[in-house]
Structure formats: C-alpha cells, structure tokens
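Incident log, structure service

09:12 report received: a user says their structure output differs between two submissions of the same chain.
09:20 pulled the input from the user's history:
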Amino acid sequence: MSTKLDKYLLKVTPERHPVLAEMEQYARENHFPIVGPLVGRLLYQLVLTVKARKLLELGSGFGYSAFWLSLAVGSKGHITLTDTRMQNKRRAYDYFKKAGLQSQFDFKVTDALMALKKLSGPYDLIFNDIDKEGYPETIAPAAHLLRKGGLFVTDNVFLSGRVLDKNPDKTAQAVLDFTNRLYQDSRFFTTLIPLRDGLSVAVRV
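09:34 re-ran on a clean worker, output below:
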C-alpha cells in the first residue's frame, strides 16, 4: 500500500481502546511487529460477520490481534493463542486483565505448527501470523480444523513487496507458494486484500 494511503487510513480510523494504544506504543518502542489498528478492525469485523465464537490464532506475539478478536466475541468467545515465548504469554495476560476482557483464553507456549497437530475443531476463524516460511504447512490443518463457512485469515501475504521480486528469497517464495496453493485449494474460496502488508481471507467451503 502507498504510504499516503496508509497514513490516510490511520488518520480516519477512530480512537482505539486505551490498552490497545498502550500495546501499540510498546510495539513501536521495542520494534515488535503487530497487525496494527487497520487489520485489527478488519479482524473484529470478520468475527462479527461469521458470528465466530471459537477462534484460533497462530503466532500471537504478546496478544495484540487476540485483543481485537476478544473485543468482537466478548464473554461468549474462546480464543486459543500460540507463541513460543512465555514472556509474551505473561505480557498478553497482563494486557487482557488490565482491559477487563471477558473471553476465555488458552495461550499455548509452543510452536504453532506443532500445536496444529494436537488441536481439535471445529473453529469459526483461524488467524495465521506465524514465521512466513511455515505458511504453506498451515493450509491442510486449517482446512481440517475449520467449520464450513469459517474463515482462514493470513497476514503479511505481500511481505513488504518482496513477493514481486524477480528472484524471491526463501521467505518470499514460501509466501508465494502459500498464496498459490490456497487459491488452488478447492476447500477454500480465497481473496487477497491490499490492506497494510496484505491479507488473504479464505472461506472454508
């Protein structure tokens, strides 16, 4: 997305929950990648659209995107999070508690791809933001774990434009493979959304 458009969208976006703003400040100060408010609002909207209650997040960091998901599902929601660092789990729960979020959270400190082998569905929505080289390995488990009509949402499918390189590196090639496979997979109907760093939104059919 062009820088001007990105700035415009951020400018017109309403103020966030104060704890979300605090999380964004932490991310800026510590160079921690988060989806930001533009994608956060989209996640919120998608949850409402499919009336999601049971959600899975692959690659949760310190809980920024899960915070948005929780705002949408409220006390009726159950969100499973995954991250490899215990310190991120602790920080996430600190923010959730501070904001008084009422969803049920199950934060698994483990590799997301390993977690996928042990989880049982059906989920209403899966948000995918793991290490990009692992993206292709998420498609089959997502198809297995999602209910019909559920959503498989994946962040960073543009990879800061690196997917356009004539000779993509290993990470960009993994994202390209993921996108191509997802489009060709008959279990999903997929669209790429040019918001921030690009998202794929795939409906389980």
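09:41 both user submissions now match this output. Likely a transient worker issue. Closing.
09:42 reviewer note: The longest strand covers residues 146-155. The radius of gyration is 16 Å.
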